[in-house]
Amino acid sequence: MEKLNGINDVLYHLKDKEILTTTLKDFFVLKKGRVYRYFNGSAFNLSLEDFADLYKDTDFYIYEDESVFIDNEKDEDYYRYYKK
């Protein structure tokens, strides 16, 4: 996981549509100008200003789901077989 440097970096990545986390159990995303936090089946949202004030001293990381893997060989086999 890539650790972000400061709240400005966090806001930049949120605006770039990245999913962020602090603990790998919570997720932060930006939707319609508001930051949504999802944790353990619940969610809340904050304005960008409130989010920056509340979380300015928190360590954030870019969430990377390592369970997602694309097998290029399988894709090639599939498209070769179903080529029109």
Gist of the model:
33% of the residues lie in helices and 29% in strands. It is built from 3 helices and 6 strands.
Which descriptors would you attach to this protein?
single chain; 84 residues; alpha+beta; three-stranded antiparallel beta sheet; 3 helices; elongated
List the helices and strands and how they pair.
Layout: E1 2-3, H1 6-15, E2 20-21, E3 26-31, E4 34-39, E5 42-47, H2 48-55, E6 61-62, H3 72-81
Antiparallel strand pairs: 1-6, 2-6, 3-4, 4-5
Give a written overview of the molecule:
This protein is an alpha+beta fold and 84 residues long. Helix content is 33%, strand content 29%. The protein is built from three helices and six strands. It has helices spanning 6-15, 48-55, 72-81; strands spanning 2-3, 20-21, 26-31, 34-39, 42-47, 61-62. Strands 1-6-2 form a three-stranded antiparallel β-sheet. Strands 3-4-5 form a three-stranded antiparallel β-sheet. A hairpin with a 2-residue loop joins strand 3 and strand 4. The longest helix has 10 residues, at 6-15. It is elongated and about 55 Å long. It starts with a strand and ends with a helix.
